[in-house]
Amino acid sequence: MPLNESQFQSVCSTARRAAIFHSAADALEWDERTGMPIAAGEYRAEQVSTLRSSAHQLRTDAHYGDALQELLQHSGDLDPHSDQAATIRSLHRDFVRDQKLPLDLVTRLSVATVRGQQTWDDARKRDSFAAFEPALTEIIALKREAGSRMAEGTSRSVYEALLDEYEPDAKVDELNPVFSDLKQQLSELIVAVTDSPQQPNVEPLQRSFPIPSQRAFSRDVAEWVGFDFARGRLDETSHPFCTTLGPNDCRILTRYEEHWLPSGLFGTLHEAGHGMYEQGLRNDWFGLPPGSYVSLGIHESQSRLWENQVGRSRPFWDWLYPKAQQTFSGQLGGTELEDVYFAINQVRPSLIRVEADEATYNLHILIRFELEQALINEELSISDLPEAWNQQYQQCLGITPPSDADGVLQDVHWSAGLFGYFPTYTLGNLAAAQLFDAAAESLGDLDGMMSRGEFAPLLEWLRDNVHRHGRNHSGSELITAATGKPLSSDHLMRYLENKLRPLYGI
């Protein structure tokens, strides 16, 4: 029996309506993080929860589910990677997961996470985990309940059910050996680098860089690499992020530090990478699988590629440094490019994940990966979390946070209920290196292009091989199709070894 076209259009219409509710909630959360009055927080939680609950009702309606089931049964003759097949398959998958969550739980989770983010922001400013602990306790209890329900009828653990929301079909037993091998290789490289007598001088990057000048420069850099400001904007917040409010409305947010230029610059490049992925998705399928990102690991690969493989490369700085010297003549005028390039590629164990160097960054992620599993599996009490965090940092990085603000409270993710999100950062780092190598092989003289400020060929390659596919392929299928091989750590380690060993003379 041929596919029922009117039925297909009906389920698409429902999914698009749900996307409108979600994007409206995203807009309110963006406003909350950028300029909402403090006293408005309680009502904002009600607004967001109402919108997300409405979307959930649409996405779990019984008639909608029946229609998807019928479409799935009659989609066997379709190309599995076609827009129609991907839409039916992915929407049905989402329905099966979402209908396991009762509306009351979705509402309570939405309220708890909006309030949780507000509480976290205040607690971090006050350097008080105790002020955040009650909110985190409530969120974790709700996420355990959600994970338990989503795991029903599957072989997934509670944690894997939460992980599946961000990285579909990922399994802890499959991630652990990859991450363990990466951790060992990174640890050996970090020891070699930090033991080298040849170390960069980062003082030039710690001079006083006026925030208004950083703000203008970062905006220019985002535009130069390809972020479309006719379809997006750049703002500031306490924790950088990217959110999409519509097919032509992508918001990226960063933060600046007067005495550390890399913070705002690389934060902007990172979020611009996310934004360019969102802007590369197909507008005509917005709110549907072909117009949606495939996984957060793939999403993170785009941000890390532009931040690191491009932004920390020598060809990029051959092009950018004269512009930086022009903007910050009083700070960088007498500093050689070679010294700045070495400084931005410094390897040094540090406290803050979002400002960590490329070599130590994944150790930050692996710490969080282990801790959040222990929290969800009830192997670690919430009251013991700060101590466990500090112990892990001492063990893995040789440093102990002097405060909760620079320790367990530094990330917004858990306050937003994003358990299972952190491992996607390391998956993204692996994919970024592998995709960049494939792009370089395909495009030819990519280094030469970057040294001339020509970023359009790389962006277009990513558009063709990643962005435009949406969810028509799985993340693993996408990597294999784009690079010719499954995801591995080889490309990332080769990239780091080839860059860092010459810089540090090892």
Automatic annotation (TrEMBL):
Keyword Protease carried by entry = yes
Q: What does this protein do?
A: Broad specificity carboxypetidase that releases amino acids sequentially from the C-terminus, including neutral, aromatic, polar and basic residues.
Reaction it catalyzes: Release of a C-terminal amino acid with broad specificity, except for -Pro
Q: What is this protein called?
A: Metal-dependent carboxypeptidase
According to the UniProt entry, its GO molecular function terms are:
metal ion binding; metallocarboxypeptidase activity
Q: What does the cofactor section's free text say about binding?
A: Binds 1 zinc ion per subunit.
- Supply the EC number(s): 3.4.17.19
Q: Which SUPFAM superfamilies match?
A: Metalloproteases ('zincins'), catalytic domain
